Each structure stands twice: as structure tokens, then as C-alpha cells.
Amino acid sequence: MIPKLHYISQGNSPTEHLENIQKACSAGTELVQLRLKNISEKKCLKIAEEAREITSHFQTRLIINGHYKIAKKVKADGVHLGKSDVCPIIARTHIYTWQIIGSTANTLQDCETLISKQVDYISLSPFRISKNKENLSQVLGLKGYQAILDVLKTDTPIIGVGDIVTKDVKDILATGISGIGVSDEITRDFNIVKLFNELLSASSTEEQRHTF
Fold first, then answer.
1. Which of 173, 172, 176, 196 has the alpha carbon at shortest distance from 184?
2. CATH number at residue 194
3. 114 lies in which domain range?
4. What is the count of structural domains for the chain?
5. pLDDT at site 209
6. What is the chain's mean pLDDT, rounded?
7. Is residue 209 part of a domain?
């Protein structure tokens, strides 16, 4: 079962990422993705080890962005692979069988390709333009999500990502999206995790289940 709310870590330094992960866990986030960019693999491993300690304490799932070898070393719950990262099929041969793989998609074709590679969940992005990230892919919005989900028939959970705020949740879930990944809105106010969780549970009577 993939949690419906993913906190994608944010911070001006690796230490700030860890502080924000602790706050997100304390606030009730069930899954955290450690997303460090422009950092050495050695430094990333150290931060990932600390993130694993924090998330283990709170019994929160930890996903490592991009680094499948680090995800294996720290026994994270899985790895998230972007479009420029290693192919999920290759990553699968290196990680533990119980670890999950998520990956990023922007089009119907991306989703179909990732499903054929047996990823455990797909992040469909961006929902809207994020001020903190270069947007190299087409912004999807509700219409884009609906168009893809109308055609895509899959049990693989699809997670909406891209500057999502609380007022978006109900409409996003109505398109068939399983859950959401949030960075900015939660980092601004960790108390909002509770509201996100309430909105996500209220919109679905049954958790999205997926076998891995």
C-alpha cells in the first residue's frame, strides 16, 4: 500500500532537509522522499543514513530520490527515479526485493512505459509551475490529469506532484489520481499535514492497494 501523502524534502542545506523531514514526520506524514540535488554521493549517503534514523523513529517510510545504491545501503523503503536517472529495470536488480520503485512521468506514454517496467508508483508532474524548480515538462493541470487517467487503466498508484495546495486535493483525486506529493506547501507550515491527510482520507473510502 502506497501512502496517499508524500512529503518531498526541501531545504537550503542538507541539515535543513533533515530538520524539515523530522518536522514532517512529527506532523504525521507517512512517507518522506529525501530529494537532495547537487551533492556528492558520499555526503548524500551520510544524510540518507540520518534521514533513515529519523523516519525509523516515527515509523515513516523513506524514499531516496535518484540514488538506488544509497537506498539499498541505508535500507530505505525505496527509491524514486527521475527521467534522467537509471532505468527502473536496472535499479530493480540492485535493490532488495521488498524495496519499492517510484518514477516520474509527464505523458500517457511515459506512464505506459513505466508500468511496463513494473514500477510501484508513478509521480505524474507537474500539476502546475513550481517556483522552486525548473519546469522542463508540460504543465498538466486537472485537464491533463483527467486526459491521461481516462485512458490509463492501471492498478499502479498515480501520485500528483507539482506545487499542489490543499484546495486542489478534492479535484485532483476526482480525476483518478491516487495521492499527492507535496513540498512547498508543507515546508511553509508543517501543521498543514493534518489537513492534507484529512482531505485525502475523506475523498476515498478505500486505500489504494498495490502488490509488490
1. 196
2. 3.20.20.70
3. 5-202
4. 1
5. 44
6. 93
7. no
- Average pLDDT, stretch 71-84? 97
pLDDT category, 133, cuts 50, 70, 90?
Answer: low
Instruction: Annotate the chain with three-state secondary structure.
Output: CCCCEEEECCCCCHHHHHHHHHHHHHHCCCEEEECCCCCCHHHHHHHHHHHHHHHHHHCCEEEEECCHHHHHHCCCCEEEECCCCCCHHHHHHHCCCCCEEEEEECCHHHHHHHHHCCCCEEEECCCCCCCCCCCCCCCCHHHHHHHHHHHCCCCCCEEEECCCCHHHHHHHHHCCCCEEEECHHHHHCCCHHHHHHHHHHHCCCCCCCCCC
From residue 198, give the alpha-carbon distance in Å to each of 4, 9, 24, 195. Answer: 11, 21, 15, 5
Q: What is the pLDDT of residues 136-173, one digit of tens each?
A: 689 999 999 999 999 998 999 999 999 999 999 999 99
- For residue 69, being part of any structural domain is answered with yes
Cell numbers found for residue 170 = 478534492
